[in-house]
């Protein structure tokens, strides 16, 4: 009867994840679940994220209780049809537990490279590359205050038959803190230099928020390097921006003051974990980090307004372009997706804030996969 039983195991959200905590179960034993339904919330060191059921069925067991921390791959629950008896389920769980070793994940981990430092002129950039193959590579550009882990639920999923690259912009994460004048055109020059350093002639560019504006500037200056544009809640398509978010992100230096600022990023506030908040506080304490953020904010968002109007660049881009926006974005209104050229594919993701690539990762991954081709 084992073929009628489906194990639910601790997922691997991102390259660095080795364990996760059961934050809360959204369904109870005996409940029927659909494929893709979020059945349990998993808390990691970066964010709390929903685990989607791999198939339709009945949740027969919650093997891991709420509050328990388990390694990636560990059994957390069991799906089975109603005809499967309890004895068979007990035997399945016992066999799984006796055979499971968290070391089994090492083989997968070995196939994923650790971040490396790549020199682009005088700058040192932290870069994460996954996958290989002949298809056109994909390059991810994060937003203001982010880093390459903003793509932890996307990068591996989009690495089939191609290189999938994320990196920390200057002034962010593990990269050089020198941001020059802090303008998007300057970051686009750096991004172009990174592509050259990686021997990539052309790539699909995925940019989020400020990274979307950088992607547009890259397309303007080096159109031959851009195979397609996927812009997720991009800066540059409207004037308004939540000034309190920008100011709060730059100035907040304690969890009590930073946490409500970060909660503006998502529709489901519970996704912002304590570990995520404390990680950003540690980053901001690095030499030059806060000054870099201030420089970017002053260059790109003076007086609570977006300084650049990049709609003309998007209209003039000759390659495929799509815009993805969370319907409940509190930082940049989804109104920015209105009145775009007909050639630009627009998707508004319901129940999602400023970071749909994290809140609705599966949906966003499917949108990108279908857009750039498998």
UniProtKB/TrEMBL annotation:
This is Acetoin dehydrogenase. One of its GO terms (cellular component) is membrane. NCBIfam families: PRK14875.1 (NF011457). It comes from Kozakia baliensis. One of its GO terms (biological process) is acylglycerol catabolic process. It comes from the Bacteria. The lineage of its organism: Bacteria, Pseudomonadati, Pseudomonadota, Alphaproteobacteria, Acetobacterales. GO terms for molecular function: monoacylglycerol lipase activity. SUPFAM superfamilies: alpha/beta-Hydrolases, Single hybrid motif. Coiled coil: none annotated.
């Amino acid at each position: 009867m084992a073929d009628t039983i489906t194990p639910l195991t601790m997922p691997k959200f991102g390259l660095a994840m080795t364990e996760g905590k059961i934050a809360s179960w959204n369904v109870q034993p005996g409940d029927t679940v659909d494929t893709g339904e979020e059945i349990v919330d998993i808390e990691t060191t970066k964010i709390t994220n929903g685990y989607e059921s791999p198939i339709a069925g009945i949740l027969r067991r919650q093997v891991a209780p709420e509050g328990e921390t388990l390694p990636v791959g560990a059994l957390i629950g069991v799906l089975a049809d109603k005809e499967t008896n309890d004895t068979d389920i007990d035997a399945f769980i016992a066999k799984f537990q006796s055979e499971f070793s968290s070391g089994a994940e090492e083989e997968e981990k070995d196939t994923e490279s650790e971040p490396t430092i790549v020199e682009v002129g005088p700058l040192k950039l932290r870069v994460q590359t996954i996958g290989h193959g002949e298809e056109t590579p994909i390059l991810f550009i994060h937003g203001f205050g982010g880093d390459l882990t903003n793509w932890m639920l996307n990068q591996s999923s989009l690495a089939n038959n191609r290189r999938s690259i994320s990196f920390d912009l200057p002034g962010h994460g593990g990269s050089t803190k020198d941001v020059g004048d802090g303008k998007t055109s300057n970051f686009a020059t750096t991004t172009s230099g990174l592509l050259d350093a990686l021997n990539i002639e052309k790539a699909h560019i995925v940019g989020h928020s400020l990274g979307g504006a950088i992607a547009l500037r890259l397309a303007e200056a080096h159109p031959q390097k851009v195979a397609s544009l996927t812009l997720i809640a991009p800066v540059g398509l409207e004037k308004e921006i939540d000034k309190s978010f920008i100011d709060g992100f730059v100035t907040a230096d304690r969890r009590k003051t930073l946490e409500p600022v970060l909660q503006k990023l998502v529709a489901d506030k519970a996704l912002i974990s304590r570990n995520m908040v404390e990680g950003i506080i540690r980053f901001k304490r690095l030499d030059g980090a806060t000054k870099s953020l201030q420089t970017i904010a002053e260059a790109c968002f003076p007086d609570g307004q977006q300084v650049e109007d990049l709609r003309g660049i998007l209209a003039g881009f000759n390659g495929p372009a799509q815009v993805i926006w969370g319907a409940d974005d509190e930082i940049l209104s989804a109104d920015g997706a209105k009145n775009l050229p007909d050639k630009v594919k627009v998707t508004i993701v319901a129940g999602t804030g400023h970071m749909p690539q994290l809140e609705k990762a599966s949906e966003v991954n499917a949108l990108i996969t279908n857009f750039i081709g498998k």
